[in-house]
Amino acid sequence: GYKVEKEGVYYKRFDESRGPSHRLIEGADPRSFDVLDYEYAKDSKHAYYQGNIIPGAEPSSFKPLSRLYAVDNFRAYYAGDSIALSTSKEFMIIDEYFSKDKTNVFYTTKPLNVCSVDNFI
Question: Which of 16, 64, 68, 83 is deepest in the core (most CB within 10 A)?
């Protein structure tokens, strides 16, 4: 998880092959840093997944929906990656791998371009 110190923000994790580790998140602002859950966080400039900046994410509206999914005012994210062609409007998680918005169904970060979002099973 995240640990906020005066000198910076760290992301700590445990890897079964390497053991515990922690690393400084370069450029993270400790004064505005907000831990949203174990995976996701944000500060005044960026949103983060597992201590990595999420490119293009809008921190002011960013919020996690689950340990994998998150949204901002413009799009949805899966494990810190933008879901291609997604919108946050009416975004919904189907299960761990599938999600949908008002126009498409997605497998992780890929749009499936289904004929009918409402009839997708």
Answer: 83
Distance (Å) of CA 59 to CA 39, 53, 100, 106: 15, 10, 22, 23
Does the pTM of the predicted model rise above 0.85?
Answer: yes
- Sequence-distant (6+) residues with CB within 8 A of 86 are 75, 76, 99, 101, 104, 106, 111
Q: Tell me: the pLDDT tens digits for 101-118? A: 999 999 999 999 999 999
CB-based contacts of 102: which residues, under 8 Å, 6+ apart?
Answer: 87, 89, 90, 117
Determine the Cα–Cα distance for residues 87 and 26; give it in Å rounded to an integer: 29
Looking at residue 17, its pLDDT comes to 83
